Each structure stands twice: as C-alpha cells, then as structure tokens.
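Minutes, project huddle
Topic: does the predicted pose make sense with tryptophanyl-5'AMP bound?
PN asked that the exact inputs be recorded in the minutes so nobody has to dig through chat later. Recorded below.
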Amino acid sequence: MTEKKTIFSGIQPSGGLTLGNYLGAIKNWVSLQESYNSIYCIVDLHAITVPKEPKDLRHNTLEVLANYIASGLDPDKNILFIQSHVSAHAELAWILDCFAYIGELSRMTQFKDKSKKNEGNITAGLFNYPTLMAADILLYNTDLVPVGEDQRQHLELSRDIAQRFNNRFSPTFAVPEPYISKVGAKVMSLQDPTSKMSKSDDNENSYILLNDKPDDIMRKFKRAVTDSIGVVGYQDEQPGIKNMLDIISKITEEPVQRIVDRYSGKGYADFKVETAEVVIEELRPIREEAEKLMKDKEYLQKIYQSGAEKAEEIARKTLRKVYKKVGFVPRY
Ligand code: TYM
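Predicted holo structure (tokens), as shared on screen:
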C-alpha cells in the first residue's frame, strides 16, 4: 500500500440498506476513495448478535456488496470483503475482550437499545459487539473511520481500547479518528423524526430502502410526518422538515438556506414531492446497478475473494504482532 492514510468502515447485512446507511456512510466513502487506502467490510459476524435467518443473511451479505459497488465504490481502488472470511477479526476480538471492561460495555447506548428489543434473550455477543468492532478497525492500522453519528460512542471505545493496549505494552495500534459529516450523519425516521431512520423499525413507512421503487419512495415521503407550523424552516421545532432539508442538501449539495428561501410562501406538499424526487433520482441508478450485480454472483464472488485475500494479509500481520506482545509462544 502507498503512503495514503487508511480508512476502514463496515455495514451490517441485517436487511436492506436504508437511505440513512447511504447518506450517513456510503456516500461519504465514495467521495473519500481517491485520497485514502480504503477498506470496506460487510460485517456479517456483527449481524448474528440478534437472531437471523441463514438464508436471509446470505442474501443480504451479497446485496450489501452489490450496493457498495453500485453506489460507486470501485473494487479496484478499495478492498471490499466479508468479515467472516478473515478470521483475524474474531481472534483479535477475543484479545480485546480481555482489555475491555464490563462497565464501559454496559454504557453503550446501542447495547441498551437493542437489549430492550430482545429482552429475555440478550446474548453475550450483543454485549461484546463493540470489541469486535474495535478489532475490525484496529487490525488495519486505520486512521479514519467514516460512520454516522450513532457509531460515535463505539468509536470512542475503540480508541480507548487501542490506547489502553498501547500503554500496557508498546505502540501497537494506530488510534483511529471518527469521520462524521456535518450533513446526513443522522437521517431521521419519516414517521417519528425525533428518532433515527432504521431498518429494524416495525413501520416500513419510516424508512427508505436503497432498493425501494420510485412509487414507494414518493408514497413514503408524501406520508412523512411534519408539523403544524406550515412554513419550510430549518429549526428543531420542525424535525420532519429539517430532516428532509438535510436529505436534499446532502444529495444535491445545495445549501439548506437556499432551499428554505426557494420554499418561501409555499406549503409542505411541494416540498415533500421535491424531496422524494431528489431521492428517487439519486437512488435509481444504484438500484438498477445493484439488481444487475445480484444476477452476476460469479463477479461478486471474485470481488469478495480477492478482497478477503488482501484484507487477510494486513490483518494477519497485526494479529501476529499482538500475539507476540501479549506473550503467546509463536508457532513458527
Ligand atoms: P450499521 O450497520 O447499523 O450502519 C452502517 C452505517 O450507516 C450509518 N447509519 C446512519 N447514518 C445516518 N443516519 C442514519 N439513520 C443511519 N443509520 C445507520 C451508521 O452510522 C454506520 O456508519 N457497528 C456498525 C457496523 C460496524 C462498523 C465496524 C462500522 C462494525 N464494525 C467498523 C465502522 C467500523 C453498525 O452497526 O452500523
């Protein structure tokens, strides 16, 4: 690899990707790919922390890969791979488990939220999830981790664990910085704009999927919850409108204030339609390309196999160093 800095990020194959995943993560990855050595993973090990149908998991894993490529991540410029293909992730996660405290893991809001939804069957995997995420990142001497706002806390923990390990032994891991963009880092639910858009939401009108058809997208935006103020404005009292302004601005790069000015004197109906149209046009080529790629499993296989080979080489080197530092006897 060249002297460019390294990026690592990943998405769980736990259902179709949402507009939140796209605007909060993938769209930024595409714009960063020229200036960094980038490694993008489909984190299937993370996805089984809550129950998954094996057949769905297999399908979703390939679909995330297809969406990465369809969104513009060039497989020749980025390492694209499936987490379970590189066993160093699970191995380093165990070591890091021994450097993470129960107290800090208990404070993770994603754990608290997800355990509320799975009360009665909270797995140890769900609890240990953040140390696996730290392993993902630290294996590649990652400098930058582009994610949405909801991953900030996990990233802080990865930094703490890296520093703890480095202090206990000697500098081993790069300490990664978060990259969280100003606009689009938290796309909100269309039905409850005070909470994050999420594919695990029970109400399918609350999220836009990358493979939603134009009619679905239009219908969902037309039904989006707004407010009774009636004037398009960018303020916390109008979370639904604010969310749509962010969505348009993130996609078109038109400053929010200009959009607000364009709507002076107009109602919400036109504004919702414009938001839907902007999203439809942004997602149309991605959906079409992803559909094509999903029919070419051989091509996808070639990408994830070569990705895993490249990732493995880097990951093994780090893991060897870590094993040596903690005092394991080398096999060779
Ligand atoms: P996951 O799979 O929930 O989401 C993937 C990425 O999408 C972002 N995102 C959002 N951004 C803006 N608005 C939203 N509504 C929204 N919903 C999701 C997330 O912030 C994330 O960037 N733990 C991670 C996966 C992971 C990972 C890693 C990420 C595992 N290992 C290593 C980075 C580095 C997760 O559950 O993301």
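Observations noted during the meeting:
- The longest helix spans residues 297-326.
- The longest strand covers residues 6-11.
No decisions taken; revisit at the next huddle.
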